[in-house]
Design a protein that fits this description.
Layout lengths: L2 H11 L6 E6 L1 H4 L5 H13 L4 E5 L11 E5 L5 H4 L1 H6 L6 E2 L7 E5 L2 H5 L14 H7 L3 E5 L8 H9 L10 E6 L5 E6 L14 H4 L4 E5 L2 E7 H14 L11
Parallel strand pairs: 1-2, 1-6, 3-7
Antiparallel strand pairs: 2-5, 4-5, 6-10, 7-8, 9-10
Helix pairs in contact: 1-3, 8-10
């Protein structure tokens, strides 16, 4: 696909100028993209325009444990963990990356600095005050390109907000993070449980009438308002704390 075709398809699907959008992408599912991952980032930025913001997951690889001290040097390519598109976005000259040792977010656009600020002060990776929470408050959108809700980190925000018992490990880890300019922060954070405690795609049955499906290249895609997804998920989880839990997990 050319960059103009990508932008035109996104606009036709309801991604508009001025939108603030967190995107999860399987670029392989899309097929050929002019300019590769960097070209795809530019097409996304064109779709939301100068008044909008694009956000990308910037998670750091590796299983973490409470009482561990995590040292993260930011703006290392996150490609092994979250794919080629965030790896390209993190090196964009206007990129901001939130300072968090496990679940950082990369943002480019009008609200990029505001949405990524003070992530290191949050009690949990995706909870209140995090970029996922801020995007929700800004009326943002969640864009899934060639992937489903299992890749949607904003559902972890819903789990943390709802206070489900299986999602966070007991205790906290200490951390130190340093960005590309040498700015350093440190603090403590709760850590997610690993090895598949959540089956996030279970939320699909509750929100299918709210998402907007479309095709981009060869990829089946959709977007949904962050507020609708998170509010629905919190309601579902408060009614049944195990509604998005993987069967058989402890």
């Amino acid at each position: 696909m050319t960059l103009n075709e990508i932008t035109s398809t996104l606009r036709g699907a309801g991604i508009s100028e001025g939108d603030h959008v967190l995107v999860h992408t399987s670029l392989k599912a899309v097929g050929f993209v002019e300019g590769g991952p960097s070209g795809f980032v530019e097409a996304l930025l064109t779709a939301v325009g100068t008044e909008g913001t694009m956000l990308f997951p910037g998670m750091s690889p590796g299983e973490r444990k409470p009482n561990e001290h995590i040292v993260s040097t930011f703006f290392d390519p996150p490609a092994p963990w979250v794919g080629k598109v965030p790896a390209a976005a993190v090196h964009h000259p206007n990129a901001f990356r939130s300072m968090h040792p496990t679940h950082s977010v990369i943002a480019i656009g009008r609200l990029a600095e505001d949405l990524t600020r003070d992530h290191h002060l949050c009690e949990s990776p995706c909870g209140k005050g995090s970029p996922f929470h801020k995007l929700y408050e800004e009326g943002g959108k969640l864009l899934m390109v060639g992937c489903n809700f299992d890749s949607c980190t904003s559902l972890h925000f819903a789990e943390e907000w709802a206070g489900v018992p299986y999602h966070l490990q007991e205790g906290q880890a200490t951390f130190a993070c340093e960005d590309k300019d040498g700015t350093a922060v440190s603090g403590t954070t709760k850590i997610h449980r690993w090895h598949g405690t959540s089956d996030l795609n279970r939320i699909a049955n509750h929100v299918h009438k709210f998402w907007r499906p479309f095709v981009l290249g060869e990829a089946h895609c959709f977007w949904i308002a962050s507020e609708i997804l998170v509010d629905t998920a919190v309601e579902v989880l408060k009614a049944d704390a195990n509604a998005l839990r993987t069967s058989g997990t402890l």
